[in-house]
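Quick one: structure tokens for this chain, please?
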Amino acid sequence: MPTRREFLTAAPLLTSLGSLGAEPIQKSITKGHASDLKVMTYNLRYANSKGPDSWPERRPAMRALLQRHAPDVFGTQEGLYSQLRDIAADLPDYDWIGLGRDGGSRGEFMAIFYRKERLTPLAYDHFWLSDTPDVIGSSTWGNTNRRMLTSVHFKDRKTGVDFHLWNTHLDHALQTAREKAAELIRSRIAKVPADQRVLLLGDFNAVARQNPAYDRLTRDAGLTDTWYAAKTRQNEDLNSFNGFKTPVHQSARIDWILLRGPAVVHSTEVISFTLNGRLPSDHFPVEIQMSWI
């Protein structure tokens, strides 16, 4: 099987708000310092073409949410190539990096979007959550969906700080696959020099503090869960998975943002957002506002 890595950047194309029928959206009014970094993880739900929750119906709500909260960098899960191109067209201030989990533009992406004026990518990489992580599309733990991780080493042009952002999606069905994936990620992060900053985010398909995969990445890998480190939390009891249904308040958060390195996490939020009653995805995004120190 091929092992060649590819670098995909979606060309920014301007799409007017009116062309998609969305209402004008104001920028986020979250208070903070200019040096604060806003980071988001968001499972987009792949671009299904039919039904009431199809991507064409959801796209305006997705664009409105992202424009309102305006993260500096966000990792996405499940996005298909055409869907990611749509998001890039709706967000001309961003570029993105990613690779389909089946290679090239095929399959779902762990894409990372970043604000061009703020962040510069210094390097990127991809590996697969399997016993052969450098083989594109590999899957060896019994999971039917191939799983992967995309990482980008960024330079923050505003602060001069550089950091690594890792974005992943663990298996939805097999606990063994989740634990093996967490151990693989732990071992890979351990190879990043200890004085370098790391953000690990994604859809882990495991409730925080209630799954051994979480323990591998926090207790064993020494990563801090930004949710608990945050000075303030919004929607503290809201499940991050909504299934396109009425939100559930059971504090079941399967979408995490973990970090390593000196930082202050000012705030975090499970973002409950609709546009004209439309949910953008079957997950709510999780966002933090932080500063490296």
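Residues 18-292 form a domain with the Deoxyribonuclease I; Chain A fold (CATH 3.60.10.10).
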